[in-house]
């Protein structure tokens, strides 16, 4: 498998004898400048390490895969005027720290912007690729062409319900790494890691041994990240970070990132155990 740009972040972590942390956060919440502050914090500050890869979410009005926490943040971002083009400023912000950014987006937003134009602007901003939760390789001919033309990674998803044929085909279509959703259902923090995740990753390893695998959906603390790091190349965390900013806003100060930084430190330690 071609590790692309984003896969190199996972490989660098492996070279250090650990696994990678992928952090998701949506642009535009609590507002666009505030979300850029969050993204900078997630990249690490001073001597404190941060996430190895940043997954920037693009809020959408019909987020079929998103759980309550991310939906709430996305709705507020849309109400406060976030636009598709704001994602490129977020990408530039992350890239300027030296951390690799990718964008997670529902395909309709890319299609409406123009597939080649979106790929061009993403690459120009310093983006490494796209995670496309509602786009399958069979229907991605435009994205294949645009990602090849602009040198972007294609990160598709598989789930515990994916057949062996689907896993093999999806892994072959990826450039960068493969996103394994550890549970059936929407995003959100959970008390325990999914028992289906190890079996899913084992199936991926058997069918596509060269593929890099990130596992997401449900990871909310360092212990869960450490458990995922036992069998995957990266632990993906989103809702837990968003929840910290929601809590801060509800407490009266959305700019207070104390809780987010504490969680980040716990997760960074988790993937390094």
From TrEMBL:
The catalysed reaction is: (1S,2R)-1-C-(indol-3-yl)glycerol 3-phosphate + L-serine = D-glyceraldehyde 3-phosphate + L-tryptophan + H2O
Q: In which pathway does it act?
A: Amino-acid biosynthesis; L-tryptophan biosynthesis; L-tryptophan from chorismate: step 5/5
Q: What class of enzyme is it?
A: lyase
EC assignment: 4.2.1.20
- GO cellular component term of the entry, any: cytosol
GO MF annotation list: tryptophan synthase activity
Q: Which Pfam families match?
A: Trp_syntA
Q: Which UniProt keywords apply?
A: Amino-acid biosynthesis, Aromatic amino acid biosynthesis, Lyase, Tryptophan biosynthesis
Report the active site residues. Answer: 55, 66
Role of this protein: The alpha subunit is responsible for the aldol cleavage of indoleglycerol phosphate to indole and glyceraldehyde 3-phosphate.
Q: How does it assemble?
A: Tetramer of two alpha and two beta chains.
What the record says about family reads: Belongs to the TrpA family.
Q: What is this protein called?
A: Tryptophan synthase alpha chain
Q: Which organism is it from?
A: Micropruina glycogenica
């Amino acid at each position: 498998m071609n590790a692309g740009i984003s896969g190199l972040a996972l490989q660098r972590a492996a070279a250090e004898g650990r696994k990678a942390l992928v952090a998701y956060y949506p642009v535009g919440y609590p507002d666009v400048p505030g979300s850029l502050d969050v993204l900078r914090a997630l990249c690490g500050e001073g001597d404190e390490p941060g996430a190895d890869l940043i997954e920037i979410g693009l809020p959408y009005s019909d987020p079929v895969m998103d759980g309550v926490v991310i939906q709430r943040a996305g709705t507020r971002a849309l109400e406060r005027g976030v636009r598709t083009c704001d994602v490129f400023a977020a990408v530039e912000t992350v890239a300027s720290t030296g951390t690799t950014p990718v964008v997670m987006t529902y395909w309709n937003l890319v299609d409406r912007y123009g597939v080649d134009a979106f790929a061009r602007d993403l690459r120009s901003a310093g983006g490494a690729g796209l995670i496309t939760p509602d786009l399958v390789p069979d229907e991605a001919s435009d994205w294949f062409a645009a990602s090849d033309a602009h040198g972007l990674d294609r990160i598709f998803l598989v789930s515990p319900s994916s057949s062996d044929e689907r896993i093999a085909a999806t892994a072959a279509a990826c450039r960068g790494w493969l996103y394994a959703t550890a549970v059936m259902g929407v995003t959100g923090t959970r008390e325990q890691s999914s028992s289906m995740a190890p079996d899913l990753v084992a199936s991926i390893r058997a069918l596509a041994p060269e593929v890099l695998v990130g596992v997401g959906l449900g990871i909310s603390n360092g212990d869960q990240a450490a458990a995922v790091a036992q069998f995957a190349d990266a632990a993906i965390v989103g809702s837990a970070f968003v929840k910290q900013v929601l809590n801060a806003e509800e407490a009266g100060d959305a700019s207070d990132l104390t809780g987010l930084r504490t969680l980040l430190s716990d997760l960074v330690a988790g993937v390094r155990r």
